[in-house]
């Protein structure tokens, strides 16, 4: 098993065709076919099968492809870090952003990375906190924004800001910023929430025993956009930070009222891995991300957020 074989595996998996994979790799088609044959002989099992849409990975192929992506990413990172000590900061840095923060932070962060560290290749992944934590621990992201986690043997965290949550409903529900709602008042309300194990859902589940209520969850989705669309269509209400619905409220598509429960605040932290070396490029990008977040709070672009980092 070698790098050429793994690149051929991923190219065919992504294109669904040996011909298109050869074009993407800038080699001839028989060379790709040979690499796949050698790889299948090495692992002793078929990695592809012919499907409706071309070459499709088998279950074993999916497993190998998942590990191959991580291995090649680590090699690319290593290659970019091997440089003279007086060279500019460079490398591949993948940052994980929460869906509610991505619109606010992605553009300014990319601008600053380009301006200050043009040799850094920035990649941005967006996902709920549960996914981001898994990706951080597995090495798929180098740094991530999470909420409310404590430091563990696998990750180190730096609390950055606290943010209140709000009840979000259709515009016709007449929710407003000057009308607060207690969690206990939501007992009979149909709620659309992320699945168990994700940040805001965990906050709500932990607060419920104190109110004696059980959440009336009518739909679960791990997409913030789907959450909001279902609310707009009248399927129920959801719980989100105000930053996630600022534009929707301005367009009169959604309404939002703050939750009055003090414990229902999320603390956003910058998380880095404890189990591997943190390259200079990652530290540089993490510093820029922290700076952009602080500036957003100071400008008033992050409603209900309070900066708590030193």
UniProtKB/TrEMBL annotation:
MF terms in GO: DNA binding; DNA-binding transcription factor activity
Keyword field contains Metal-binding: no
Chain ranges of the HTH lysR-type domain: 1-58
InterPro entries the record matches: LysR_HTH_N, LysR_subst-bd, WH-like_DNA-bd_sf, WH_DNA-bd_sf
GO biological process, one term: regulation of DNA-templated transcription initiation
This protein's UniProt keywords: Activator, DNA-binding, Transcription, Transcription regulation
Family that this chain belongs to: Belongs to the LysR transcriptional regulatory family.
Name of this protein: Transcriptional regulator, LysR family
Species this protein is from: Paraburkholderia piptadeniae
Higher taxonomy: Bacteria, Pseudomonadati, Pseudomonadota, Betaproteobacteria, Burkholderiales
